[in-house]
Design a protein that fits this description.
Structural class: alpha/beta
Number of strands: 27
Shape: globular
Low-confidence stretches: none
Number of helices: 15
Strand order of the largest sheet: 7-6-5-3-4-8-9-19
Largest sheet: 8 strands, mixed
Helix content: 25-40%
Strand content: 15-25%
């Protein structure tokens, strides 16, 4: 399980043996198998309404037929610009059923961010919902890109009857005014009952998802995840559940489905096992507490900021959380005080895990029961191997007990980056005749196979589970005529873990203050990219060759 490391089977504490083999499957087939086992089982609980597995499969098939009627062919890209709403699942599996590749887009994206990724991915059809903020952004992207068709779902149609009527009658300002056309179509018109015969899916070869990620320089990159990677990672996650009766589990769905963590740990994991998801359109601590109590949720994957928000809510001590068996924290390191306090207040065990977009979501996690080690990211999921290599030369394996860059080999590792062969050459390295993914994270591993992340090579900033890329924020602030140079680093923040902070020098004669600059910047970036301060300096640190030195600035400030 750890190449060149001797970790005994007796020290492996997940309930399924590490050497368990998983059979890859096309994701729509995984959904169909679950429906065959128990068609009427609840799949999605949304705002007081429940949708069965059979309903979702039927709607997915109708959407697949609609896409094929539009001329979508195998390998074409279909984008999802959606919050957590029931049609997300229908669109996700339906697009794949038609042979298309799904592209996830964050609802937090600005017009510019969404337009760039639509162009880079070659997205032909984009699915959104009639919430004004989302529709207005998507509408502008339709006009400003090669996107061909915008499919708009009705939020009211997905609500229980009384809530739907209230939204239509009393909440009209919360429903976007749609200018329907041949390029802007209602969801209902794109889900049709007609026979269709898509090309068969080969799980080992065909792409299922483009999930955008990024680095410290350049634009985000689309990680190419196949049906094999995603289905196997869902089964790897299911295999660490020791509780039995997996189809009776109810997952708390507060993580956004567009995020790779939720895509695997919630959506595909539930489909693989027949569990249900109590989904919320967005995270709200009070609503999460009410949902856990009402629907008796049993598992809660989240990011550290969610658990902090629950602790801060006045109802946390008055809510019955006894149905929860475990909470899984990922996306960013969980501060030790938050970890301890959450368990003390709620009585619910929290386990930390680790994963990457490039690994389909999950690499390691602490056991749900029995031995765990706080402050670690746990043990590897089945069939996953790691090596620790020299931070300067990834071809050199470090000595036992020494920290090194974490590299990963396993069935869940991506195929590569979309149209980025030069980046693939940088992110993959050969060892023992296998291709390993470089993570950019420095780790240690103890004698029992528990991993700890001790440093990050990458400059990415982890804001509440989202990755923020300093260069993108720098690009925006440098558009201001008063700014000469800029460096962005992450600084600690109790709630979000980290937030961006911007350091700038000004053009000669410029007369502006940091408060004005931070307001200007934050109006032009995504919500998770907003800076806490813009600090004006006379100079910024530079390397010997004159490049701005982010590492030196971080060392000085932190």
């Amino acid at each position: 399980m750890f190449a060149d490391m001797n970790v005994s089977k007796s020290a492996y504490h997940h309930p399924t043996p590490w050497d368990t083999q998983f059979q890859p499957i096309a994701l729509p087939d995984m959904l169909a198998q679950t429906v065959q086992r128990n068609p009427d089982a609840p799949f999605l609980h949304f705002m007081g309404r429940s949708f069965s597995y059979q309903h979702t499969l039927h709607e997915a098939r109708r959407f697949a037929a609609g896409l094929l009627a539009m001329g979508i062919a195998k390998g074409d890209r279909v984008g999802l610009f959606l919050p957590n709403v029931p049609i997300y699942a229908s669109a996700y599996y339906g697009a794949m059923m038609a042979g298309a590749v799904v592209v996830n887009f964050s609802p937090l994206y600005t017009v510019e961010e969404l337009a760039w990724q639509v162009e880079d991915s070659g997205t032909r059809v984009l699915v959104t919902v009639d919430v004004p903020e989302l529709y207005d952004t998507a509408r502008q992207v339709l006009d400003a890109s090669t996107l061909e068709t915008l499919v708009v779902g009705s939020l009211a149609d997905q609500l229980p009857t009384l809530k739907s009527l209230a939204l239509r009658i009393l909440g009209r300002s919360k429903i976007a005014k749609i200018d329907w056309s041949s390029a802007i179509l209602p969801w209902a018109d794109c889900t049709v009952d007609r026979p269709f015969s898509p090309d068969p899916i080969d799980p080992a070869k065909d792409l299922a998802l483009l999930q955008y990620t990024g680095g410290t320089t350049g634009r985000p990159k689309g990680a190419m995840l196949g049906h094999d990677q995603l289905s196997v990672n869902a089964l790897q996650v299911a295999a660490i559940n020791p509780f039995g009766n997996a189809d009776k589990e109810v997952f708390m769905g507060a993580l956004p489905f567009f995020h790779v963590f939720a895509n695997t740990s919630l959506l595909n994991h539930a489909v693989a096992t027949g569990a249900s998801i109590a989904m919320l359109p967005r995270f709200d601590a009070g609503q999460v507490l009410k949902t856990i109590e009402k629907l008796k949720t049993t598992g809660f994957p989240g990011v550290p900021t969610m658990f902090q928000a629950l602790l801060d809510h006045p109802d946390v001590g008055k809510t019955d959380l006894s149905s929860l068996k475990v909470c899984i924290s990922g996306g960013a390191p969980m501060p030790a005080p938050v970890h301890t306090k959450f368990e003390d207040v709620t009585g619910v065990r929290v386990v930390e895990g680790y994963g990457l977009t490039e690994s389909s979501g999950v690499v390691s996690v602490n056991p749900y029961e029995g031995t765990r080690k706080k402050g670690t990211i746990g043990q590897l999921v089945a069939q996953t191997e790691i090596l620790l290599v020299d931070k300067e030369d990834p071809h050199v394996i470090v000595s036992d007990g020494e920290p090194g860059e974490l590299i990963i080999h396993g069935p869940q590792i991506m195929k590569g980056y979309w149209n980025r062969p030069e980046t693939d050459a940088e992110v993959f390295v050969e060892h023992h005749g296998k291709k390993w993914l470089r993570t950019g994270d420095v780790a240690t591993v103890d004698e029992d196979g528990f991993l700890s992340i001790v440093d990050r090579i990458k400059d990415m900033i982890a804001v509440g589970g989202f990755k923020v890329f300093p260069s993108q924020v720098e690009d925006v602030i440098l558009e201001h005529e008063a700014v000469k140079e800029a460096l962005v680093i992450g600084v600690p923040e109790d709630y979000l873990g980290e937030v961006p902070r911007v350091y700038v020098t000004l053009e000669s004669g410029a007369d502006i203050d940091g408060k004005t600059l931070v307001d200007w910047l934050n109006a032009r970036v995504g919500k998770h990219e907003r800076a806490d301060q813009v600090v004006i300096r006379d100079e910024l640190p530079k390397t010997l060759v004159g490049k701005l030195d982010r590492k030196a600035l971080r060392a000085e400030v932190l």
